């Protein structure tokens, strides 16, 4: 299997991936594919996608993100999108894609806090 | 040589020879008209009219087609637009400025009548002067309108700039107090500046206060929903506050669904909720404050 250009890091039961500047269709599809395999292989409980570096998004990439979220949920993992830039948020809203079912956080740090609420048991 | 070309030559000749006479006649007419305004003195008038007549003279003497002399011949066009700008700045109305240019027609025609003996040629020349100066009069009007338009647009931009302050109310809590009618352009700017501020401050909660918004229609509600959705995408929460009874009735009557948005009636309630959401305890502070008040 061709591995995608996007590295997927494993932190216990959490998978962490950082998307780069532009998410082209091929990369997005390969990434979704590899991520689903990884989630299932390690039985991940959560996936954190760091999209701080993502400056541009199109409807296809947005759909892939929703698909990743759906797929991860089916495999029993939560998906948190972290650090969306405001132009990306505006674009998505104007396209009418408000990513239902996807959790969001201001940054990776906040995403980890969200996954491991203070006082609660840590995920992973 | 056609009658029109001969007429044009005649005008050039007469403008050259009787420039001072035309200028004097025009100034006399203007002085009586502007006597009450007192904004323009005779020397300035003289300067203005000399520039315009010189422009006319040079424009007609050039080989340019007649229709394009006013708009296409730069010295004349500039003279006319400068004239319009200067007088507009002095507070002269658009009608009066165009009227001043039209008055130049009378001055020219009178001199032409004396200077051209042939009646047919005189008619042709008169007509030509009329067409030329009508064009110039319209140009002053256009200039006037354009400069007004520019002012309006500049003020619009300034209004947009001042209308959307994003303030920090608490650790990781932001608020935008909206004042005035929200149209698409303003809503867009509000959304952008709010989201930008969320990103810069890593804010967890954004409060949109609509106390100062007089009416909410479906378009405004749509914009608010979009802002809330975008805020959520960035990982922050949004609270809508300051919904007055009339607005609440209107929202209910229009059937706008704001159920996905957290709403509070006042900014104070919204702030309390927001502080709780970021994990602090406003209740404690509020209780302390009320006991203090009771004691005093």
From TrEMBL, chain A:
InterPro entries: Bact_StressResp_Reg, STAS_dom, STAS_dom_sf. CDD domains: STAS_RsbR_RsbS_like (cd07041). It comes from the Bacteria. Transmembrane segments: none annotated. Gene3D superfamilies: STAS domain (3.30.750.24). Residues 4-115 form the STAS domain. This is RsbT antagonist protein RsbS. The lineage of its organism: Bacteria, Bacillati, Actinomycetota, Actinomycetes, Streptosporangiales.
TrEMBL record, chain B:
Keywords: Phosphoprotein. It comes from the Bacteria. The keyword Phosphoprotein applies. CDD domains: STAS_RsbR_RsbS_like. PANTHER family: RSBT ANTAGONIST PROTEIN RSBS-RELATED (PTHR33745), RSBT CO-ANTAGONIST PROTEIN RSBRC (PTHR33745:SF3). It comes from Nonomuraea jiangxiensis. Residues 163-274 form the STAS domain. This is RsbT co-antagonist protein RsbR. It holds the Pfam family STAS. The keyword Repressor does not apply.
């Amino acid at each position: 299997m061709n591995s995608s250009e996007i590295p997927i890091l494993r932190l216990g039961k959490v998978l962490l991936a950082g998307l780069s500047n532009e998410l082209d269709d091929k990369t997005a599809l390969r990434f979704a594919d590899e991520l689903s395999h990884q989630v299932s292989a390690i039985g991940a409980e959560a996936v954190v996608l760091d999209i701080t570096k993502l400056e541009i998004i199109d409807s296809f990439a947005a759909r892939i993100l929703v698909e990743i979220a759906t797929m991860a949920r089916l495999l029993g993992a939560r998906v948190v999108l972290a650090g969306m830039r405001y132009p990306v948020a505006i674009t998505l809203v104007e396209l009418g894609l408000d990513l239902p079912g996807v959790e969001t956080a201001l940054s990776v740090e906040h995403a980890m806090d969200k996954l491991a609420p203070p006082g609660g048991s840590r995920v992973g | 040589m056609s009658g029109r070309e001969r007429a044009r030559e005649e005008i050039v000749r007469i403008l050259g020879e009787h420039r001072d006479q035309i200028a004097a006649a025009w100034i006399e007419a203007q002085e009586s008209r502007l006597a009450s305004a007192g904004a323009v003195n005779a020397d300035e008038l003289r300067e203005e009219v000399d520039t315009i007549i010189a422009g006319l003279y040079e424009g007609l003497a050039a080989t340019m087609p007649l229709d394009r002399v006013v708009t296409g011949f730069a010295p004349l066009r500039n003279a006319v637009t400068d004239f319009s700008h200067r007088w507009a700045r002095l507070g002269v109305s658009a009608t009066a400025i165009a009227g001043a240019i039209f008055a130049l027609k009378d001055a020219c025609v009178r001199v032409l009548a004396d200077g051209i003996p042939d009646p047919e040629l005189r008619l042709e020349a008169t007509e030509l002067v009329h067409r030329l100066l009508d064009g110039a009069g319209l140009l002053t009007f256009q200039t006037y309108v354009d400069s007004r338009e520019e002012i309006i647009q500049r003020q619009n931009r300034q209004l947009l700039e001042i209308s959307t302050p994003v303030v920090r109310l608490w650790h990781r809590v932001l608020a935008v107090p909206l004042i005035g009618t929200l149209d698409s352009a303003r809503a867009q700017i509000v959304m952008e500046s709010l989201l930008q501020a969320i990103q810069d401050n890593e804010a967890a909660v954004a409060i949109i206060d609509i106390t100062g918004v007089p009416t909410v229609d479906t378009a405004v509600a749509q914009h608010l929903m979009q802002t809330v959705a975008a805020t959520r995408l960035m990982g922050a929460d949004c609270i809508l506050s300051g919904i007055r009874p009339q607005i609440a009735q209107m929202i209910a009557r229009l059937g706008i669904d704001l159920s996905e948005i957290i709403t509070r009636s006042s900014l104070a309630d919204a702030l309390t909720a927001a502080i709780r959401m970021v994990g602090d305890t406003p209740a404690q502070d509020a209780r302390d404050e009320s006991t203090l008040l009771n004691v005093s």
